[in-house]
C-alpha cells in the first residue's frame, strides 16, 4: 500500500448543489386509471396511523369545488370543500421537508428531499408505495402510469456573466437549445417527447431545464441551473400483475434518467456526481 | 436550508388546464359573474397549489383542456429551493470520494493515475456500510489510483486502501501496539469487529 498523497484541488466552475450530488428532489409516483372510490379513499387516509413513526406529520388534502349556477334567477355560487387525500411528512429540524407521501385523487407519490443513494432511497420509497397499495382493495383501480421525477441543481462558482455553459452541458447535447449557450446566463428550455411510442408501455419524457439566480443562505446571487426530468411509463393494457414489481420499473426509469443526464452533462460533471451508467 | 429565487426567464404562467378553465368561465359568464368566477378559480388555485393541475381547476380527466399529451401533469414538485446540510458526514464523505473521482491522469503533476469508476463505486459502497456511526477519515488518492482512507484516532491508526479490483487492504495499530493487517480482502467482506469498534462510535 502506498502512502496517501494530497491531491491537487480541482475546482469545477459548476458544482452540484449538495456537493456529493445535485438532486434536490426525487418523486416516485403511480397513477391509477380512475380516482379512488370513497371507501378506498377512507382506507388510504387511515394509512397515517401505519406510518406515524416514519412520517409523523399528517395533513388532509382538501379540494375546493367551485359551482356557478348561471341558470338560477339569483345566480348563486357555491364553494364546497371535500377531502380528497392525505399528505404524510417528515421534516428536518429547521422545518424543511425531508420526505413526503401524498395520496390524492388517482395518484400516490413519494417525495424524497433527502437523497443519498438510489438503493437506499428507493427502498424507503418502495415501502411507502407498497404500504399505500395494500389499502387499495379489489380490482377497481389499475395502474395506468408509473413515474420517476428527478430535480437536479448545479451552482456556478463565479460571476454569472463569465459563466460558460459548455462547462456543464455537452455542447452537442440534443436536449438544450443552442440559443441557451449563446445568449447570457439566464434562459430556459422545456421539452416533452415519447420514447418507443408504438410499444405497450410508452415512456413519456418531460425535461425542463432552466437557469435562475438563487440567493443561497442569504449570500450573493448565485447562478443555478435546474434540470427537472420526469419520466413516466404509461401503461396502455391493464394487467396489474405485470406491474406488481415496482422495483424493475423504477430501476428502468432510474437508468433512463441516468442515460439522459449522460447525454446532457459533461464527463467531468458526471464523474463529480458518480453517474455510473448501466452496463 | 432555504434558498430564495430571485430572477428567472420564466414569468408565472398558469397551467394550461387552468387557463382554459378560466377562459371558459370568462366566455360563458356575464361580466360580474366572470370576475367572481375568475377570482374564485384563482383562490382555489392558490389553496390547492400543491395538487396537480386537474385538481387545481376541478377539471375531470375527460375535460377538454387542450393540454398537449406530452405536457400532462403527473406530480407537483414540493422542493422550495432548499439544499441539504453539506457538512453532514455521509454527504461529506460521498462528496470527497466523488471529488477524487474527477482527478484526471497526471493529477499530481507526476504521472498520478486517476481513480477508476470501479474504485469510486467500491469506496462508496464500502463506506456506506459504516454509516451512520463511522468516525471521519482522511480520504485521499494515491499516485497509483488507490483510494486511501486514513483514521488517526487517539488510540488507533488505520490505513485502508481500495483499488477498484474488488478488494481492499489495511494496516492498523493501536496505541497499545496491537496490529491488524489484511491484503486483498474481498470488498463485500466487513472489517473485523475489533476494528469496527475502534473506528465507529458504536464502542463509545
Provide a descriptive summary of the structure in words:
The complex is a heterodimer of chains A (279) and B (204). With 279 residues, chain A is of the alpha+beta class. In chain A, 21% of the residues lie in helices and 39% in strands. Chain A contains 6 helices and 10 strands. In chain A, strand 8 and strand 9 form a beta hairpin. The longest helix of chain A is centred in the last third of the chain and has 19 residues. Chain B is α+β, with helices and mostly antiparallel strands. Chain B folds into 2 domains: 83 residues, no CATH class; 115 residues, no CATH class. In chain B, helix 4 packs antiparallel against helix 5. The chains are: A alpha+beta (279), B alpha+beta (204). Strand 9 of chain A pairs antiparallel with strand 1 of chain B.
Number of helices of chain B: 6
Please, what is the average pLDDT of chain B?
A: 77
Kindly name the structural category of chain B.
alpha+beta
How would a crystallographer describe the biggest sheet of chain B?
Answer: 5 strands, antiparallel
Strand content of chain A: 35-45%
Helicity range of the residues of chain A? 10-25%
Q: What is Rg of chain B?
A: 28 Å
H/E element string of chain A? EEHHEEEEHEHEEEHH
Q: Give me the count of strands of chain A.
A: 10
Number of domains of chain B: 2
Write down the overall mean pLDDT of chain A: 87
